[in-house]
Amino acid sequence: MKAAFMYGAGDVRTVTVPDPTIQEPTDAIVRIVRACVCGSDLHPYHDMDDAAEGVPMGHEFLGVIEDIGGDVATVKKGDLVVAAFAWADGTCEFCLDGLQTSCLHGGFFAAGGVGGGQAEAIRVPQADGTLVVLPVAEDSELLPSLLTLADVYGTGFHAAKQARITADTTVTVIGDGAVGLMAVLSAKRLGAERIILMGRHTARTDLGIRLGATDVVAERGDEGIAKVLELTGGHGTHTVLEAVGYRAAYDQALGVVRPGGVISRVGVPQYEDAPIGFGSLFGKNVTLTGGPAPVRAYIDELLPDILSGKVNPGLVFDQTISLDEAADGYKAMDSRQALKSLIRF
Amino acid sequence: MKAAFMYGAGDVRTVTVPDPTIQEPTDAIVRIVRACVCGSDLHPYHDMDDAAEGVPMGHEFLGVIEDIGGDVATVKKGDLVVAAFAWADGTCEFCLDGLQTSCLHGGFFAAGGVGGGQAEAIRVPQADGTLVVLPVAEDSELLPSLLTLADVYGTGFHAAKQARITADTTVTVIGDGAVGLMAVLSAKRLGAERIILMGRHTARTDLGIRLGATDVVAERGDEGIAKVLELTGGHGTHTVLEAVGYRAAYDQALGVVRPGGVISRVGVPQYEDAPIGFGSLFGKNVTLTGGPAPVRAYIDELLPDILSGKVNPGLVFDQTISLDEAADGYKAMDSRQALKSLIRF
């Protein structure tokens, strides 16, 4: 089959690799119908060391089950399914707590010997805990929105849930990428009436307004912080959803969070140490939360409004490519010509 | 009047200073009946630069109102009152949210021109928002327990509340000082059934057991972390109440917190930067919370069980001194001969 592999910074190729096969009785083989490129795929695209053998890429996909192992009980051949980006057994103590990203028998796609989702097919470990059947046809127009359940919608929703957003909560979303825009949609879903989106790409912030943002702040750093404070009576917002992952975004979050408020991070931090003492988090009683989103925990909740057409998170896809054009998708996203690239098979 | 002042590291003296007077119509003057030395008073005791004029000390006191300004309405001359360590108007948006430590018109005792509580009398700004009447006599045996409402009991309770402890929550408390022990009592109050106290002073951890700790881990660092993991099936506890403030205590908290859990800090951080990236907080979806406790918000809730004798937080006082002996109190606490020194007038 064909699959996208990365061989070093800026070097993505569509290559031919062996077809995946059932290895464990809990596995399923999925023929992929839609996949996409994630903002987090751009991190290795920027700094990966050269690797002659390459690494598989992609962790967002939906497709049709072609084969299942002997222990798989909740999905069957022919089902159209979406996978959470972290595969998980669904039965361990962490899964039962809704923290599938810490599953005792789980892991991540495109890592640890499991293939990537930017491929014609994939082996899905722990199929019962990982896959959710989608009650639509393989050619449904809803597929792009349904694909966001694999990561970006659930990740934005995780940010909002962890921040405990309600109608009384003012919100700043930092970042106008796909996850930031999904955080806007999620904050609105949880009832927030004031959602300030910090981003400087007009096409994206315009989409943010369509998804629920009430204000847009294009400035960054101290200037952006001053603008948000000005919009909030000098105190900042109750919650800040940080959907970037760079240190500058964290510093911005510290600047716009209200005393007693919450910074909820879902952008994968590209730093380890940062200020958390009296002058940053502690003195203002600010809570810091977030992490890799257990999107599996949210699919059941988010699915109905996509099926009914009430929400359309698939709007984040503004480029459609074939698997052979995977390199173009990375290039377009990296240069910000594309917000998010959908791969159609 | 007499008051304890600090003139440099290790240099506390009881000196004579002018009596406090009403300066604002919202002020009250309180004749102090009981005060005490706080673990946080030991930080300047370790590292304060020499200051010829000295600085007033102490932020925990109860006493009798001797005078009030013209706008004071909820307390009157002759009332026995306890003060929250952060004075606050009780009416601003942050006070109404229960975050009196961020009061728009508030501040801290022994700072910014307001005197300290280790003194015969004190001017209390924003008396209506800061003072709570105690329905006992000036010679009540309950005074030591009531005095803990000024800081340490409310601070331990803040740690537990911010961690959202319930009966289903396992707890590690780091630190066997007065605040750590009050965190144990508070965790038990909120229903926790498993409370692991990390501390190595047997007299204190014995008191911790009396207050609700179910396990004691005397080891520190990696050895202590391994012990807690061993006690919790390898995963750590849902919540960690960090009542020390040193970086080593934060690192210990990272080591014993369960994925998806909460680290709640009330020890004033003696560091600013620390790990919060993928390898520490983020990857495990750990929430970091806490800060200076808005103890005023908790007094109404905590008072009845002290009055009824159900709880006895005053057990943290194991030394009683006079104001003239203030230096001895600091010395005893610094050398860990005393857990907490009560000043009796």
Structural notes for this entry:
The structure is a homodimer of 345-residue chains. In chain A, strands 3, 5, 6, 9, 10, 18 and 19 form a seven-stranded mixed sheet that branches. A six-stranded parallel sheet of chain A has the order 13-12-11-14-15-17, with helices on both faces. A three-stranded antiparallel sheet of chain A has the order 2-1-4. Chain A is built from twelve helices and 19 strands. The first copy, chain A, folds into two domains: 2-151 and 294-344, Medium-chain alcohol dehydrogenases, catalytic domain (Quinone Oxidoreductase, Chain A, domain 1); 155-290, 3-Layer(aba) Sandwich (Rossmann fold). By secondary structure, chain A is of the alpha/beta class. The interface between A and B is large, with 36 and 36 residues. Chains A, B: Residues 25-128 form the Alcohol dehydrogenase-like N-terminal domain.
What's this model, at a glance?
The structure is a homodimer of 345-residue chains. The first copy, chain A, is built from 12 helices and 19 strands. By secondary structure, chain A is of the alpha/beta class.
List the helices and strands and how they pair.
The structure is a homodimer of 345-residue chains.
Chain A: E1 2-8, E2 11-16, E3 28-36, H1 42-47, E4 55-56, E5 61-68, E6 80-83, E7 86-87, H2 93-96, E8 107-108, E9 121-124, H3 127-130, E10 131-133, H4 143-147, H5 152-162, E11 170-174, H6 178-189, E12 194-198, H7 202-211, E13 215-217, H8 221-231, E14 237-242, H9 247-256, E15 257-265, E16 273-275, H10 278-282, E17 287-290, H11 296-307, E18 319-321, H12 326-334, E19 341-344
Parallel strand pairs in A: 11-12, 11-14, 12-13, 14-15, 15-17, 18-19
Antiparallel strand pairs in A: 1-2, 1-4, 3-5, 3-9, 3-19, 5-6, 6-10, 7-8
Helix pairs in contact in A: 5-6, 5-11, 6-7, 8-9
Keywords (chains A, B): Metal-binding, Zinc
Organism (chains A, B): Conyzicola lurida
Pfam families (chains A, B): ADH_N (PF08240), ADH_zinc_N (PF00107)
